[in-house]
Amino acid sequence: MKKDFSPLTFWFAIIVIALVRPPTRAQGAEKTAASESEKVSIQWKSLLFQAFEFDALENGFRVATQPETRATMGGPFFHGYAASLDNLHGWADGDPFLVNYVGHPMQGAVSGYIFVQNDPRFRKTEFGRNSAYWKSRLRATAFSFVYSEQFELGPLSEATIGHTQAYFPQQGFVDQVITPAVGLAWMLAEDSLDRYVISWVEQKTSNPWVKMLARGTLNPSRSLANVMRGELPWHRDTRPPLFKGRQTLLAASNLRSTTSIVAESASESMPAIDSFSRTRSGIEEAP
User: Fold this and answer.
1) Residue 263: pLDDT band with limits 50, 70, 90
2) For position 265, what pLDDT does the model report?
3) Side-chain half-sphere of 22: how many Cα atoms within 13 Å?
């Protein structure tokens, strides 16, 4: 049973969410450090809302694309949830390498960036040998662990929506360890690319479309986290907007037009949703 979306769906998620949630006006580097330092507390309301959006996106994708998840959603709720928790043991969970060691680290990075963008005290820290940066990423990793536990075992999780862990071989702890741990490494990689590669590209060209492409392709997790807060995927808190005035509206309009085409194509190609009454054994016996 493949229970998580693969990294290839991250960009699909970015453009679909950008379609249904219009971006807000980008906030440039003109916002002073003094104004940021006045708000040192974590913005819990927006943090929890954006985390909920991300969780809803992931679980919605599971329900929409996985017949086995839909088939096991029936039955007694608490009995299935208890069975999922009781069956947890070992390391492996039956998922392929790409899901466990690429997809889940990206999940950890996205949830980490969601925390960073709601942590005004460290929001503008950049990769480097400074205590503020490392403190911010460790704080983000702690939140990533909490998010991962919720996604795996919480009220809106794989354990409650489809009772995933109740069935062999989905009982391992691999995701709960890899998501925050390797997710931190993924954030460090994206942060270093943003500072040394993306910034270098931006210094070599004045073309905003080239800059947009560099930011998006080399920082996919940050891009999705940006969309969760209603920003354009290529937004940066530490640098001015890529587009100004009518250019910003044009870029947003083009993005939304593209997402409309992608969403329509996806809806046409998606197979009909199986009946919830189908039994798990029937699914497994299907060719």
Assistant:
1) low
2) 52
3) 10
CA dihedral over 195, 220, 31, 141, signed as positive or negative = negative
| Residue 140 CA: distances (Å) to CA of 52, 113, 117, 221 | 16, 7, 10, 13
- How confident is the model over 199-230, as pLDDT tens digits? 999 999 999 999 999 999 999 999 999 999 99
Tens-place pLDDT, residues 39-68: 578 999 999 999 999 999 999 999 999 888
Using only the alpha carbons of the chain, give its radius of gyration.
Answer: 20
Helices vs. strands in the chain: H and E counts, helices first: 14, 0
Integer CA distances (angstroms), 69 to 58, 65, 137, 190, 215, in order: 13, 9, 33, 32, 35
Q: Where do we find the tokens 């960036």?
A: 113
